[in-house]
Amino acid sequence: MHTKIWCLGTCVFLLSAAVAAPPSQSDVFEKLDSVPYGWYQGDFAPDPHQRIKLQIAVQQQDKHVLLKDQLLSISTPGHFLYGQHLSPEELNTFLRPDPTVSSAILAWLQEASIPEIDIEDNGDWFSIHATVEQAEKLLKTQFRYFHHVDNAVPPRLRTLQYSVPHHLHRFIQMIQPTTHFSRAKPYQVGGGSDGPIPVYGSPTKLNVTYCNATTPPDCIRALYKIGNFKANSSSGVKLGISGFNYQQAVHTDLALFLDKWAPKQNASSFNVKTSNGGVNNENGAEVWAAEANLDIQYGVSLAPGIPATFYKTGGLGPLIPDLQQPNNSDSLDVQEPFLEHLQYLLNLSQKDLPTVLSISYGEDEQSHPVSYMKSVCQLFAKLGARGVSVIVSRYVFSCLYILGRLFTYISGDGGPGDGCMTNDGKNTTRFQPQFPASCPWVTSVGGTEQVQPEIATWLSGGGFSDVFARPDYQAKQVGAYLNNTVGEKRFKGLYNRTGRGIPDVAAQAQTTFPIFHMGKERYDGGTSAATPVWAAIVANINSVRLSQGQKPLGFLNPWLYSVGYRGLTDIIHGGSQGCFDAALGSGLLAPEVPFAGWNATKGWDAVSGLGTPNFEKLVQIATT
């Protein structure tokens, strides 16, 4: 304990340059050249006394570098800090800005007549409750209501540009919500239903024929050597399932699922926690919105004895339209409010914080503002520093008819990209990596199919980030794949050879996961199914560790790439496909890249990562 405190004390240092607060000229900080497609400015100004909430992310490059160094230290086996996760108080102390920076920002806020009682100083974030008049004075701008061409979309109070005092530019990363627009109309997609699905599986013996056609919990248990494992309910491990947008987790559907597919667990349930106006309306589920039920049903059934919580966050994240998510009234905005979601979780006490978090959502990197992605990724690093394992896939809608059945793909579906064209006005052909899977501080999940042998599936999302550099923990394995399998010339110019490689691991992603939704049985799948599978397995491993007096694994990747890979099954067959002549999610024409895709091979690859889990081996490695 003394060692950890000593390390924190030496890591936290003051900025060398004073940030005195002499008034300075305000310069434009962010600007839109035009109103986003599909929106138009209203005729009337808002009530100047209307209250709004603004959030300011404090830019602290030096301290965020130190946080990431600290996170790697406490997550790397063999390091003297391994497993010494930070408490909320230690983390806040670690990240608290230099007092002169905080004072300068506070002085700026008070100059705009914002009283101290309406300012929340959370260290590296400021939350401000202000009137429109105060916000306009603060940001040297005018807010207006903007309306969408689809009248069902609520108007947004936004501005096309805002300014910040010049001397504060280097200390502010972003201010939200200001110039970021989003939509809110559901995309009507049907769900596949096949009626009753036969039960032939065994949790200990793999039925190859049956499990190639259907992927219920018993097939997952047999394939990944989970068997009849049940966690000690008093271990302290908690499983979190993230939920957004139009998704609802339904208790009665879980009861039906467990009664059929895990009858020994039919008393299991889950808690619901909401934030940012989120509502889990269990009577208002949509036919196409089955993601939350998929996540809950497989998370709970594969991690018996571990309490599960569905964290439903309301609102939408900022959207930069692209071919996958065009900004028109016939498409769905599924940009998740990751910022608000993670801030809520980080405000939880250590005893209430989930030990493992499953997030089956995400979109193309280019559909998010870069400043937003970096801020969200820093919050993921903070969760890792507190000992949370975050498991992530990607969230995409697309539909295929297979053998007369309509399948709805939800997550990392699209190989190297879906709609492979940049949205920067240049319309350049380019692969599309996904966020938040591309954040280096989460564990991203790819997809497989079949069971003997297990092969990489064509729809598994993967590739290389255009925003985040490749972290050292994966440099050796990813470099070997690029040099020995991909080569210099293949797909040259279509991806970033120095970017963070995704995915890290993989699991079954066949579209044959039986679930119950709205009281009916149906199939679902994609890497959004693989994500709760991995989260449940990690939760089970943590329950063994905690029962033996060890700490939770926390941020997984340094452990996975250094020793954990020995407990994985290397996937060497199959590959992904993508960059077709139409974006699967929207149907819009897109530049086709012939033979676009990543091949599975020995070692790490950009379709199955390091491989799929063997629970028995992973437990042995994690507890010795």
Automatic annotation (TrEMBL):
SUPFAM superfamilies: Protease propeptides/inhibitors, Subtilisin-like
Active site, renumbered: E291, D295, S528
Keyword Glycosyltransferase: no
Residues passing through the membrane, by range: none
Compartmental location: Secreted, Extracellular space
One GO BP annotation of this record: proteolysis
EC number(s) reported in the record: 3.4.14.10
Protein name: tripeptidyl-peptidase II
Annotated organism of origin: Cladophialophora chaetospira
